[in-house]
Amino acid sequence: MERENKFLKAYLKDLLGDQIARFWNARPEPRAIRVNTIKTTVEEVKKRLEQWNVPFRPVPFNPEGLIIEDDRLPLSQTLDFFLGKFYYQGVSSQLPAVVLNPQKGDKVLDLAASPGSKSTQMAAMMGNTGFLVLNDVSMKRIQALNTNIQNIGSVNYAIYRQPGERIGNILPEYFDKVLLDAPCSALGIIHSHPEVYSWLSAKRLAKIVEQQRQLLVSAYKALKVGGEMVYSTCSISPEENEELIQFMLDHYPLEIVEIAPEIHKLFLPGLTEYQNKSFTPDMARAIRILPHLHEMEGFFVVKLRKTGRRHKAVKSYHTFKTLAYNHPDVEDDLRQISEQWGIPEDTWQRYRYIKTRDRLWMVNTQIKNIPEENFLNAGLLLGEKRIFGWKLPNDSIQYFSRWITKRHLAVSEEQLRELFNTGMTNVPGVEKGYYALSWQGQAIGSLYVEKQRAKIRLMHRFKVIL
User: Fold this and answer.
1) Rounded to whole angstroms, how far apart are CA atoms 161 and 117?
2) CA angle 181, 231, 313 (to 5 degrees)
3) For site-directed labelling of 97, which of 193, 304, 327, 418 has its Cα 20 to 30 A away?
4) How large is the angle between the packed helices 242-251 and 202-222, nearest 10 degrees?
């Protein structure tokens, strides 16, 4: 029998008072998706949902978000999901990026980015422009982040692996906007993460708050004067939220920014008092989401602006240059890709490149210099040089679908279903080599043919819904 957590029961009772029973009996947050506007439109996804008879309604604060009333298929089994046209993302989880509102051309930091829900959201909001720096300390979590950001077709990002507490010192006043969706106690999502009940204690809570404090200071240092940051947690604990923000206001030149009234009115304001402690009246500009009141996961969101600096920023970071399309190190590679796949050579002028021994990565033309320290990778993996020419991975094939004019391998519906279900299918009379899987005139994936058997690499096999 699980041991009773007396601390947590008393803590939540003190915080929620007579709402405690409603909190424990809160309905789970409904499933939701977010349309990837890099690859499609909201209207197109809505039409597809209607064709599949999947009921949905809009996320009230995000035009790209859709709440799925009954994920009867499920949507994760559809070809559209494989193509990265939409992404599963919790309703509350969509709010921080909406509040931050990154713009085209911005330099943006996602300080604790994995697994990438908010990162992919911001990449699309930025229209694949600007420079989005994604950081996490866990390589295992970064693997999921990299998969998700590649799948949406992003060319405006770089991934780093380092403690978030260091970034403010490494890249001082580098960013226009910062998102810190901080590691937290998860008290707002305890219904779906009951393990919190077994480990949370006063000591652990204090340790979490100290880590959040260090991350907030790092985010402040990384932000340009006049820049904006959003701090969010999936916790309803005031110690992790209002109390911590008050500490930052007391020690750093920051101000709380108003959130759009049409969004703010949907939720509760931030607390201005807690346990005989008073916070600035501006704390009411923050947002509190409680699962029993809003039928969403519990969240806290506040928007801050940096109004000055405490210390002079010492900019000592080193960078490396991305390569133009006509640079000698990549010019011949791009010509070979064009010859093999039929992609017009003038397409390459729209991007810049990073080359490793046998791989070529592609970023937008605004990313000319990339900070070096703890850098992992950036942009879309364009291709890998192999014995039989350049292999374009699934994400690259999808990105260049409308430009690829050679090496299409059109398949029947039966063959397509077999590919997704087993990873291979028979293709009589087809020579060995790399091909673009073609379905209804669209290139949707990367195939390798050997001994008249076509193979596709998938994260998992499934019975695809067309």
Assistant:
1) 17
2) 105
3) 193
4) 40
CB-based contacts of 385: which residues, under 8 Å, 6+ apart? 333, 358, 359, 360, 391
Is the predicted pLDDT of residue 136 greater than 90, yes or no? yes
Tokens found for residue 335: 């010509």
Is 234 one of the annotated active-site residues of the chain?
yes
Q: Which residue do the tokens 């910062």 mark?
A: 178
Q: Are 88 and 120 in contact (CB under 8 A)?
A: no
How far apart (Å, rounded) are the C-alpha atoms in residues 349 and 331?
11
Q: Is the pLDDT of residue 461 over 50?
A: yes
Query: Of residues 234, 343, 392, 409, which has the active-site annotation?
Result: 234
* 5-46 pLDDT tens trace: 889 999 999 999 999 999 999 999 999 999 999 999 999 999
Burial of 385 (0-12, 13-18, 19+ CB in 10 A): middle
Amino acid letter, residue 382:
L
User: How many Cβ atoms sit within 10 Å of the Cβ of residue 5?
Assistant: 16
User: Which tokens go with 186?
Assistant: 């998860």
Please give the distance of CA 456 from its chain centroid, rounded to a whole number: 25
**b/e per residue 17-38 (b: at least 16 CB within 10 A):** eeeeeebeebeebbbbbbbbbb
Contacts of 52 (CB under 8 A, 6+ apart): 73, 75, 78, 465
Average pLDDT in the chain: 95
Question: Which residues lie closer than 8 Å to 448 by C-beta, 6 or more apart?
Answer: 391, 433, 434, 435, 454, 455
In this structure, how many other beta carbons lie within 10 angstroms of the beta carbon of residue 194? 9
| Residue 197: predicted pLDDT | 79
C-beta separation of 280 from 256 below 8 A: yes
Q: What is the pLDDT of residue 132?
A: 98
Beta-carbon count within 10 A of 290 CB? 20
Those residues with Cβ within 8 angstroms of residue 449's Cβ, 6 or more apart along the chain or in another chain: 409, 427, 430, 431, 432, 433, 434, 435, 455
CA 6 to the chain's CA centroid: 36
Give residue-wise pLDDT tens across range 223-274: 999 999 999 999 999 999 999 999 999 999 999 999 999 999 999 999 999 9
CA distance 157 to 466: 31
